[in-house]
Amino acid sequence: MPSKEQKKLNKREENEKQRIMEQQKEKNEKEWENGTDKRGKMRKQEKDEKQAYKMQQKLEKQEILEQEEAMYGNKKLDYLIT
Questions:
Q1: How far apart are CA 17 and CA 75, in angstroms?
Q2: Cα(54)–Cα(62) distance, rounded to whole angstroms?
Q3: Against a cut of 0.85, is the pTM above it?
Q4: How far apart are CA 18 and CA 10, in angstroms?
Q5: Per-residue pLDDT of the chain (82 residues; tens, 9 = 90+)
């Protein structure tokens, strides 16, 4: 039959093992969360870049259209005047 001291030591060892297992589990969960968070950030960044690209293209098209209207708009007015 184990002595009281031996039981205390066994209980401490058991608690220590359980604590280590819980720490490892928490660490694994945090790593998984970081992985999903990185993917989410990467997707958001790609989405933002795509949106910025579309907005840039829209502005460029609008500028070109305004330039063409300015060039051809004047000619149309000249045509109507003469």
A1: 87
A2: 12
A3: no
A4: 12
A5: 678 888 888 999 999 999 999 999 999 888 877 777 787 888 899 999 999 999 999 999 999 888 888 887 755 555 555 4
The phi-psi region of residue 59 (left if phi > 0; otherwise alpha if psi is between -120 and 50; otherwise beta) is alpha
Q: How does DSSP assign 31-65, residue by residue?
A: HHHHHHHHHHHHHHHHHHHHHHHHHHHHHHHHHHH
Cα–Cα distance list, 45 to 30, 31, 39, 52, 82 (Å): 22, 21, 10, 10, 55
